[in-house]
Write a structure and sequence with these properties.
- The complex is a heterodimer.
- Chain A is mostly beta strands.
- Helix content of chain A is about 0%, strand content about 55%.
- Chain A contains no helices and 12 strands.
- The relative contact order of chain A is 0.34.
- Chain B is mostly beta strands.
- Classes of the chains: A mainly beta, B mainly beta.
- At the A-B interface, strand 6 of A face strand 5 and strand 9 of B.
Chain lengths: ~110, ~120
């Protein structure tokens, strides 16, 4: 069974600064996908970024980037130039090819003005 | 992008009644839909996986007779909470997998169920 662990229940950052959210996972699968989802107060789940395990290059989406360390089973999310609208719960998630999503416990990020 | 809707967004019902929640994929065909439950400040807990035209697969500990799932078409899945009780009060979220983007799920906006 796969597990996903987010060890930071809460984090805060000043507007315009950079913050990194941590995520580790455990799996015996060789082909899998990793995701970061954002859940703002509206509770709509929004995909922030995804990473295919077979790709060595770290995924980047505008201000969001990941540090994927496959051997260490680590998948952190870096948010640059933090904005007030980035305030949300962030979930790290794992999916073996074509199967269910397994979510971490979540990290509540607050961006302060 | 792929859009998933849920209806209703909020529902309040009396204990003992049944409530149906609809999940629709608006601009794609979803061969697989997922139902999650989320308590305040907690993560999403997968309740069941439904495939179009077949019976849903329930996660361990989820009562299949209480949470009835029907996936009758490629764009609609329904979750019926039967004989609801206050402990069933929660936020229910559905997601759908677009067969063209096999490894990505698109989420509905969720339904807040309150059982009095």
């Amino acid at each position: 069974a796969q597990t996903v662990t987010q060890s930071q229940p809460e984090m805060s950052v000043q507007e315009a600064e950079t913050v990194t959210l941590s995520c580790t996972y455990d799996t015996s699968e060789s082909n899998y996908y990793l995701f970061w989802y954002k859940q703002p107060p509206s509770r709509q789940m929004i995909l922030v970024i995804r990473q295919e395990a077979y790709k060595q290059q770290n995924a980047t989406e505008n201000r969001f980037s990941v540090n994927f360390q496959k051997a260490a089973k680590s998948f952190s999310l870096k948010i640059s130039d933090s904005q007030l609208g980035d305030t949300a719960m962030y979930f790290c998630a794992f999916s073996a090819s074509g199967s269910r999503l397994t979510f971490g416990e979540g990290t509540q990020l607050t961006v302060n003005p | 992008g792929a859009v998933v809707s849920q209806h209703p967004s909020r529902v309040i019902c009396k204990s003992g009644t049944s409530v149906k929640i609809e999940c629709r994929s608006l601009d794609f065909q979803a061969t697989t839909m997922f139902w999650y439950r989320q308590f305040p400040k907690q993560s999403l807990m997968l309740m069941a996986t439904s495939n179009e035209g077949s019976k849903a697969t329930y996660e361990q500990g989820v009562e299949k007779d209480k949470f009835l799932i029907n996936h009758a078409s490629l764009t609609l899945s329904t979750l019926t909470v039967t004989s609801a009780h206050p402990e069933d009060s929660s936020f229910y979220i559905c997601s759908a997998r677009d067969f063209r983007v096999y490894n990505e799920q698109f989420f509905g906006p969720g339904t807040r169920l309150t059982v009095l």
